[in-house]
Predict the structure.
Amino acid sequence: MSEEFDIPELMAVVLSRYIKNGDVMFQGAATPLPMVAIELAKARGVDITYFSAFGINPSEPINFEKLLTRGFKYANQIKCTGELHALPMWDQWSKGRLSLEFLRPAQIDKYFNCNNTVVYGEEKNFHKPKVRLPGGMAVSDAINLMERTILYTTRHIKRNVVDVVDFLMCKGYPLSEWRKKNKMGTGCAAFVTNLCIFEPDSKTSMMKIKSIHPGITLDEVIENTGFEIERKEYPITPSPNAKELKMLREEIDPLAYREMDFPSLRNNVMARVAAKGVNF
């Protein structure tokens, strides 16, 4: 281990390592971890085309400290090479020109099926669910039309990582013949959680553990997963190196905007922003 790090730092680095030269990416504004991961990949020299929430190919790295302390006043000043509108973006999707997006559905099952619509209680009644979620928000379009997607969650618990989703909002089954037959993208290439990394089995499309994060035990993963996990020895997720941590902490994200993706850490971020003299 190069030096101490926390789970938000590890997850940001892991996500950044899935970004490849030549990727044409889209990423929304409500996903702090991926936004930081993209800037980290760019800082490492990965060449991408970036359809960001602020526009196409921001001319400078997004300054997360200014985004936190100045909000829309800063966001409105970000210069891009082009504007991003819904219809042209969907056109790019439909033609298979976008290659990667990071997504965070509320519920994901062992075949990468996704649910961001409803969570049932004892009664499976769509009109009276236990929790009503915001809906698909183009998740199905991204998973089905993009070359690949990466799912992530910062709360790996049985309620979120399930055997079967309560409501099938988007079919998973990455790398399957069904996808090839229907000329879709390959689907979800990975599912990154705060405990481990899953990738799809090439034959069954089912989640298989690729690695378990440093300091996390297999028992913890099993206890927090809604489907059966094979008991065997798994690799440990490679740690962030010193250069990656320095870039994250000192250059890209000194106020730890990445932690906004973790409900239990959001107050810590707000405290750091308040220390900069921002009144809420």
About this structure: The domain at 7-274 is CATH 3.40.1080.10 (Glutaconate Coenzyme A-transferase).
